[in-house]
Amino acid sequence: MGRQDGTTRQVSAASVDSSSAPILHVDLDAFFASVELLDRPELVNVPVVVAGKSLRSVVTAANYPARKFGVRSAIPLSQAMRLCPHAIVLEPHFEKYRHYSAKVMSIFDDVTPIVERLGIDEAFLDVAGARGVFGPPAQIAELIRTRVFEQTGLRCSVGAASTKFVAKLASGRAKPDGLLVVPAAETLAFLHPLPIGALWGVGAATEESLRKRGLVTVGDIASTPLASLKRAVGEASGQKLHDLANGIDPRPVTTRAVEKSIGHEMTFEHDSVDGDHLNRELLRQATAVGERMRAGGWVGRTVVLKLRYSDFTTISRSKTIAEPTDLGRRIYEEVREIHSALGEHPPVRLIGVRMEQLSPSAEHQAGLWDADEGWREAEDTIDAVSARFGRGTLGPAALLKASAPRGDASNAHRIDY
DNA sequence: TCTGGGGTCCTAGGACCC
DNA sequence: TCTGGGGTCCTAGGACCC
To answer: Nucleotide C12: nearest residue by CA–C1'?
Structure first.
């Protein structure tokens, strides 16, 4: 049907036997932009770009009219405006996106318990066990697409295949607003003509290195000996690429991946060499990280400082501490020490704090806290502080006030300061 | 008006242990 | 005494994804 561009993309649920394609990949179309347009229907046919206010921001999302001008996610806003000077720029509203995301994900949960979220606007569904109730996978896919639109006003695309990887490629091919079924027997015929960049894990760098070896299509990779592939891209990636190119992807749809790290980072409007300024930003981020860790019930052992200098070179310095912590104060002390050990350095464009080697905290095991509070508290801190004092301008006392936890006296030990 | 912010995974070298 | 080899942890950097 291809409601947005008039081409035929949708595969009729009746015309293809989808019984061998029980893994669905559902992807919301131009998600952030589409959510914004729910409130601005008059802009639906106008190029719209979602991006932050900063001069240094990049495109977070672009609707299809904007994409016709070559505007894509992740390109600098300045470049987007050169490509499409009359585009309307809207600021992102992440709270709203999370709200719609939750709504959509709950539609998935009604269909099958085996749902694997991928970021905010995508998910894999294993519907093998659902066919008794809802019919074959293609019919389930159409049911989902209908429900998502009726309950949210958003369009999504679905790929159905026998593996996660192929399902994801298929949803990409089905966009916008379509369904593509790739029965198991057609997997290789579907895969092999695709460019190598389509493979999961092949980005610009790997693509270039493989192209130099004369490899252009997925089929080329499939027929390359495993050993020479490994020599080209490394042991693990070589094996993975070879498998994917041959349609092999045994990864099951899993309901929940455990977090491995929690961090925040920020790019300054103007590069900074001011030590106090950098320290205040480190304190703000360390505090937010600590809040998220406590709310999620984690303690962490490795503190990472990330810096990007004005020439865009990026370094990281880490330290593993003996006693795992979830306290912003403690994280701040460590990251400050790491920073001062660096000595003099070029002006800083980006600064970030991350905690790694997470393990469940004792309090978490006692079952004290609500995991969903984490993001809200961290964002409250950043929003409140930024609103009152301006980004990166607060001192420790102001931060203490802004980040004091809500709640009762039993939470008193959570206060960092 | 060059390049966000949230992450994961892999590699490679050195320390250290057996 | 010119020199092994496996395993694990730590650190730094980079590719990649949404």
So the answer is: A316
Which residue out of A122, A142, A281, A377 is catalytically annotated? A122
- CATH value of A1-191 in 3.10.150.10, 3.40.190.10, 2.60.40.1120, 3.30.70.270: 3.30.70.270
A196 touches strand C (CB under 7 A): no
CATH of domain A262-416: 3.30.1490.100
Identify the CATH class of A192-245: mainly alpha
Residue count of chain A, please give it.
417
The answer to whether the peptide bond before residue A176 is cis (omega within 30 degrees of 0) is yes
Q: Phi then psi for A244, rounded to 5 degrees? A: -60, -45
Q: Residue A324: what are its φ and ψ, rounded to 5°?
A: -55, 145
CA dist., res. A117 & res. A21, Å (int): 19
Q: How far is CA A202 from CA A88, A196, A260, A340, in A?
A: 32, 7, 23, 37
Q: How far apart are CA A289 and CA A268, in angstroms?
A: 19
Catalytic residue status for A150 = no
Q: Give the pTM.
A: 0.85
Q: Which nucleotide is nearest to A259 (CA to C1')?
A: B7
CA atoms of A126 and A22, how far apart (whole Å):
6
pLDDT tens column, A73-128: 999 999 999 999 999 999 999 999 999 999 999 999 999 999 999 989 999 999 99
